[in-house]
C-alpha cells in the first residue's frame, strides 16, 4: 500500500482530538494529585485552543489556506478507514466550543462540586470535549455515532454527578431517552448502509448524486434521514424532543450545563446541517408529500424540502414552548433551560429556510444566519449558565424566592448577566443583535410572513423572561442569602471575559461574518467535500497496491 | 450463592475462562476476539470468584491482606488497583495510538512483524495492534471490576 504523506495541514485535523485524549489520560493517571491534575487539565485546555486556532488559520482563514483538509486514521484509505475532515463549518463549530470550553474549564478549577467522584471530574470533562470534537471532525457516519456515544457517556455521569435523588432521577430519564435515541441512530445508520453500501460521508454524497451509476435506489434514504434528524433533534432539544432538557440541565453542575447548552446542543445542529446540506442535498430523489390537512404539498427533487418542512414545525414549537415555559420558571437555571429550547428554535428556523430556499444565494445566507445565531447562543447561554454557577457558589441557591438585590451586591456579576441577557434579546451592538437581525432578514428574504410573526413573538417572549429574571434576582431587596454571599473574583473574571467576547463579536462583526460565510459555503460545497476526501473504489485500491505486500 | 456446588464449579471453570480469555485476546487483530472480548471474559471469571467466595476473598484469601468487613468498598485496596489498571490501560492505548506519529504515520497506524524459526510455534506474528488491544483489555477489566465490586457491595 502506498503510504499517505502526512503534511502539516493534515496532521492539524486530528490535533485537537489528540490534545484532549492526552489530557484525559493525564488527568486519569494523576487522580490522587489535585494540583497536578488541575495543571494538566488547564494545559490540555490551552493546547486545545491552540490546535483549534491553528485549524482556523492554516486550513480555513489564511489567504493561501486550502479551505479543507482530511486525515485518514490508521493510514487506511477512504472509504474503508475513518476519515476526519476539517473544513470551514467544522472549524467554526470548534472555535465556538473552544471559547466556551476554556471558560467552563477555568470555572471548574474554582468551583468543583465535591464528593467521591471529584477525581473523575476532569477526565470526564475531557471525554465530553473529545466527543464533541470528534463529532465535528468525523467524515464517517458510523464514527459520528461513536462520538455521540462518547459525548453521552460523559454527560450521563455529569447529570448524575451531584448524587441526590433528583439527580439520579434526571439521569435515569436522560439515559433512557438517549439509549432509545442511540438505537434509532443505529437503525438509521444500518438502513443507510443497506441502501447505499457505504457510511463514509463523502462516498455517500457521491453515490447519492449518481444513484444509477452505483446501481442503487435512493428512495429509502429520505425516511432514514428522517430517523437521523429525530436523533439530532433530541440532541439539539427541539420540540417534541425537548422534555429531557429542564431536568437534565438542572441536575448537572452549572459549568457542565453551560457546555451541554453551548456545545452538545450545537453538535445536533451541526449534524443536521452537515448531513442535510453537504451529504444528502445532492440525492436525486423525487419527494412528493401532499399534506391536505394543512394545505401544503412538499415537493422537490432532493430530501431537503422534507427536512425543511420538518424543521419548520419543530422550530416553531420550540420557540413558542421554550419562550412560554421560560416565563413561568422559579429558578435561574429553569429559565435558561427553557430559554435554550426557544433559542435552538431560532437556530433551526434559518436552517429550515435554507432547506426550502429556491436559490443558492438565500441558502448560503440562511446558513450564515443560523451559524451566527448559534455562536451568539453559545456565548450568551454559556455566560448565563456559568453565572448560575457563580450565584449558586456565592449564595448557595439559584431560586428566585431566595434571591434579590444581587445587582448591588456584585455589580460586575450583574453587568455580565445583563450583557448576556441583552445578547439573548438581541440588542445592538452585541453579538445577539446580528444573530437576530440575520435570522429576521433570512425570513424576510424568503418572503414568509408567518415565520416573521413567529420570530417576533419569540423575541417578545425572550424580552419577557429576561426582564423577569432580572427583576427577581438582581433588583429588589437583598435577601439573607445574597447578604451573606461571597463572590469568587476568578469566576467573575470569566463571566466578564465572556461578556467582553459578546461585545467584541458585535463590534468587530465583519471578520465573524466572513468566517460564518466561509463555514456556510463549506457546508454547501458537496463537490469540494467529496474531492477532498476522494473516496477510492475497491478496484482503484487494488490497482494502486500493485500486488500488495 | 456461596454453596459447595458453586465453589467447586468455580474452581473448575475459572482457569478455563481465563485461558480462553487470553487466547481470544491474542487472536484479536486477525480473528474474532481482541481486548474488549478478552477483557469482558476475564471479568466474568472474577465475577464467578466473587459470587462463589465473597467480595473479600481476593484480598484475604489470595493476596493475604487483612480486611475490615464493614468499610467502604470503594476504598478497598483492590478497587484502587482496578482503578489504576483502568487509568494505565487508557494511557497505554492512547500512547500506542500516538506512537506511529513519531514514525511519520497517521494516528493508530498498525504494523506487524513475522518472527521465523521460533521453537514450537515455528513462526510467530508480532503485531503492534497488540499494544493497543492490551490497553483496551486493561480498561475493560479495570472498569468492569470497579463497577462490579463497588455496586456489588451495595
Automatic annotation (TrEMBL), chain A:
<feature type="transmembrane region" description="Helical">
    <location>
        <begin position="412"/>
        <end position="431"/>
    </location>
</feature>
<feature type="transmembrane region" description="Helical">
    <location>
        <begin position="490"/>
        <end position="509"/>
    </location>
</feature>
<keyword id="KW-0472">Membrane</keyword>
<feature type="transmembrane region" description="Helical">
    <location>
        <begin position="335"/>
        <end position="359"/>
    </location>
</feature>
<feature type="domain" description="NADH:quinone oxidoreductase/Mrp antiporter transmembrane">
    <location>
        <begin position="309"/>
        <end position="462"/>
    </location>
</feature>
<feature type="domain" description="NADH:quinone oxidoreductase/Mrp antiporter transmembrane">
    <location>
        <begin position="139"/>
        <end position="285"/>
    </location>
</feature>
<keyword id="KW-1003">Cell membrane</keyword>
<dbReference type="GO" id="GO:0008137">
    <property type="term" value="F:NADH dehydrogenase (ubiquinone) activity"/>
</dbReference>
<dbReference type="GO" id="GO:0042773">
    <property type="term" value="P:ATP synthesis coupled electron transport"/>
</dbReference>
<feature type="transmembrane region" description="Helical">
    <location>
        <begin position="119"/>
        <end position="138"/>
    </location>
</feature>
<dbReference type="GO" id="GO:0005886">
    <property type="term" value="C:plasma membrane"/>
</dbReference>
<feature type="transmembrane region" description="Helical">
    <location>
        <begin position="38"/>
        <end position="60"/>
    </location>
</feature>
<feature type="transmembrane region" description="Helical">
    <location>
        <begin position="80"/>
        <end position="107"/>
    </location>
</feature>
<feature type="transmembrane region" description="Helical">
    <location>
        <begin position="171"/>
        <end position="194"/>
    </location>
</feature>
<dbReference type="InterPro" id="IPR050586">
    <property type="entry name" value="CPA3_Na-H_Antiporter_D"/>
</dbReference>
<feature type="transmembrane region" description="Helical">
    <location>
        <begin position="221"/>
        <end position="246"/>
    </location>
</feature>
<feature type="transmembrane region" description="Helical">
    <location>
        <begin position="12"/>
        <end position="31"/>
    </location>
</feature>
<feature type="transmembrane region" description="Helical">
    <location>
        <begin position="365"/>
        <end position="391"/>
    </location>
</feature>
<protein>
    <submittedName>
        <fullName>NADH dehydrogenase</fullName>
    </submittedName>
</protein>
<feature type="transmembrane region" description="Helical">
    <location>
        <begin position="451"/>
        <end position="470"/>
    </location>
</feature>
<keyword id="KW-1133">Transmembrane helix</keyword>
<dbReference type="InterPro" id="IPR003918">
    <property type="entry name" value="NADH_UbQ_OxRdtase"/>
</dbReference>
From TrEMBL, chain B:
<protein>
    <submittedName>
        <fullName>Na+/H+ antiporter MnhB subunit-related protein</fullName>
    </submittedName>
</protein>
<feature type="transmembrane region" description="Helical">
    <location>
        <begin position="134"/>
        <end position="153"/>
    </location>
</feature>
<dbReference type="InterPro" id="IPR050622">
    <property type="entry name" value="CPA3_antiporter_subunitB"/>
</dbReference>
<feature type="transmembrane region" description="Helical">
    <location>
        <begin position="12"/>
        <end position="29"/>
    </location>
</feature>
<keyword id="KW-0472">Membrane</keyword>
<feature type="domain" description="Na+/H+ antiporter MnhB subunit-related protein">
    <location>
        <begin position="5"/>
        <end position="146"/>
    </location>
</feature>
<feature type="transmembrane region" description="Helical">
    <location>
        <begin position="85"/>
        <end position="103"/>
    </location>
</feature>
<dbReference type="Pfam" id="PF04039">
    <property type="entry name" value="MnhB"/>
</dbReference>
<dbReference type="GO" id="GO:0005886">
    <property type="term" value="C:plasma membrane"/>
</dbReference>
<keyword id="KW-0812">Transmembrane</keyword>
<dbReference type="InterPro" id="IPR007182">
    <property type="entry name" value="MnhB"/>
</dbReference>
<keyword id="KW-1003">Cell membrane</keyword>
<keyword id="KW-1133">Transmembrane helix</keyword>
<feature type="transmembrane region" description="Helical">
    <location>
        <begin position="35"/>
        <end position="55"/>
    </location>
</feature>
Amino acid at each position: 500500500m502506498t503510504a499517505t504523506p502526512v503534511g502539516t495541514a493534515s496532521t492539524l485535523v486530528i490535533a485537537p482530538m489528540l490534545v484532549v485524549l492526552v489530557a484525559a489520560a493525564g488527568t486519569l493517571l494523576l487522580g490522587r494529585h489535585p494540583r497536578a491534575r488541575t495543571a494538566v487539565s488547564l494545559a490540555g485546555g490551552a493546547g486545545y485552543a491552540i490546535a483549534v486556532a491553528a485549524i482556523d488559520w492554516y486550513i480555513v482563514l489564511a489567504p493561501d489556506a486550502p479551505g479543507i483538509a482530511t486525515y485518514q486514521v490508521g493510514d487506511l484509505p477512504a472509504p474503508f478507514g475513518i476519515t476526519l475532515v476539517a473544513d470551514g463549518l467544522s472549524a467554526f463549530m470548534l472555535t465556538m466550543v473552544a471559547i466556551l470550553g476554556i471558560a467552563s474549564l477555568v470555572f471548574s478549577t474554582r468551583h468543583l462540586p465535591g464528593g467521591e467522584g471529584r477525581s473523575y471530574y476532569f477526565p470526564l470533562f475531557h471525554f465530553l470535549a473529545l466527543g464533541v470534537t470528534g463529532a465535528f471532525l468525523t467524515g464517517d457516519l458510523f464514527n459520528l455515532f461513536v462520538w455521540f456515544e462518547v459525548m453521552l457517556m460523559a454527560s450521563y455521569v455529569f447529570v448524575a454527578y451531584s448524587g441526590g435523588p433528583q439527580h439520579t432521577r434526571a439521569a435515569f430519564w436522560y439515559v433512557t431517552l438517549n439509549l432509545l435515541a442511540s438505537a434509532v441512530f443505529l437503525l438509521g445508520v444500518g438502513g443507510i448502509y443497506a441502501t447505499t453500501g457505504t457510511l463514509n460521508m463523502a462516498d455517500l454524497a457521491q453515490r447519492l448524486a449518481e444513484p444509477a451509476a452505483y446501481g442503487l435506489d435512493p428512495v429509502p434514504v429520505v425516511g432514514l434521514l428522517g430517523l437521523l434528524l429525530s436523533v439530532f433533534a433530541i440532541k439539539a432539544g427541539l420540540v417534541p424532543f425537548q422534555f429531557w432538557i429542564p431536568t437534565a440541565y438542572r441536575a448537572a453542575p452549572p459549568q457542565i450545563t453551560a457546555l451541554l447548552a453551548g456545545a452538545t446542543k450545537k453538535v445536533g445542529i451541526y449534524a443536521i446541517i452537515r448531513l442535510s446540506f453537504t451529504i444528502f442535498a445532492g440525492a436525486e430523489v423525487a419527494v412528493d408529500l401532499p399534506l391536505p390537512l394543512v394545505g401544503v404539498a412538499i415537493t422537490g427533487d432532493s430530501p431537503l424540502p422534507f427536512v425543511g418542512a420538518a424543521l419548520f414545525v419543530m422550530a416553531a414549537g420550540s420557540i413558542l414552548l421554550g419562550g412560554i415555559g421560560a416565563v413561568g420558571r422559579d429558578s435561574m437555571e429553569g429559565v435558561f433551560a427553557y430559554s435554550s429550547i426557544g433559542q435552538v428554535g431560532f437556530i433551526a428556523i434559518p436552517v429550515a429556510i435554507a432547506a426550502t430556499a429556491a436559490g443558492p444565494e438565500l441558502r448560503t445566507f440562511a446558513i450564515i444566519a443560523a451559524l451566527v445565531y448559534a455562536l451568539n447562543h453559545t456565548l450568551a447561554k454559556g455566560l448565563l449558565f456559568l453565572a448560575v454557577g457563580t450565584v449558586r457558589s456565592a449564595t448557595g441557591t439559584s431560586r428566585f424566592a431566595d434571591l434579590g438585590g444581587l445587582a448591588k451586591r456584585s455589580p460586575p456579576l450583574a453587568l455580565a448577566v445583563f450583557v448576556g441577557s441583552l445578547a439573548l434579546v438581541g440588542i445592538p451592538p452585541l453579538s445577539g443583535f446580528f444573530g437576530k437581525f440575520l435570522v429576521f432578514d433570512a425570513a424576510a428574504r424568503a418572503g414568509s410572513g408567518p415565520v416573521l410573526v413567529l420570530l417576533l413573538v419569540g423575541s417578545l417572549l425572550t424580552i419577557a423572561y429576561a426582564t423577569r429574571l432580572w427583576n427577581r434576582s438582581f433588583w429588589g431587596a437583598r435577601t439573607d442569602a445574597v447578604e451573606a454571599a461571597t463572590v469568587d473574583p476568578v469566576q467573575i473574571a470569566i463571566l466578564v471575559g465572556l461578556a467582553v467576547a459578546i461585545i467584541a463579536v458585535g463590534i468587530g462583526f465583519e471578520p465573524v461574518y466572513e468566517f460564518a460565510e466561509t463555514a456556510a459555503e463549506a457546508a454547501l460545497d458537496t463537490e469540494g467535500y467529496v474531492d477532498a476526501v476522494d473516496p477510492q473504489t475497491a478496484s482503484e485500491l487494488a490497482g494502486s497496491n500493485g500486488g500488495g505486500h | 450463592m456461596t454453596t459447595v456446588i458453586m465453589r467447586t464449579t468455580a474452581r473448575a471453570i475459572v482457569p478455563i475462562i481465563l485461558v480462553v480469555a487470553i487466547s481470544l485476546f491474542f487472536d484479536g487483530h486477525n480473528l474474532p476476539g481482541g481486548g474488549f472480548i478478552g477483557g469482558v471474559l476475564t471479568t466474568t471469571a472474577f465475577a464467578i470468584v466473587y459470587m462463589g467466595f465473597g467480595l473479600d476473598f481476593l484480598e484475604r484469601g489470595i493476596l493475604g491482606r487483612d480486611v475490615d468487613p464493614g468499610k467502604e468498598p470503594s476504598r478497598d485496596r483492590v478497587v484502587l488497583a482496578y482503578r489504576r489498571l483502568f487509568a494505565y490501560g487508557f494511557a497505554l492505548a492512547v500512547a500506542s495510538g500516538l506512537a506511529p506519529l513519531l514514525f511519520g504515520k497517521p494516528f493508530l497506524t498498525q504494523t506487524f512483524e513475522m518472527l521465523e524459526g521460533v521453537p514450537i510455534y515455528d513462526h510467530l506474528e508480532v503485531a503492534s495492534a497488540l499494544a493497543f488491544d492490551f490497553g483496551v483489555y486493561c480498561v475493560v477489566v479495570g472498569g468492569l471490576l470497579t463497577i462490579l465490586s463497588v455496586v456489588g457491595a451495595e
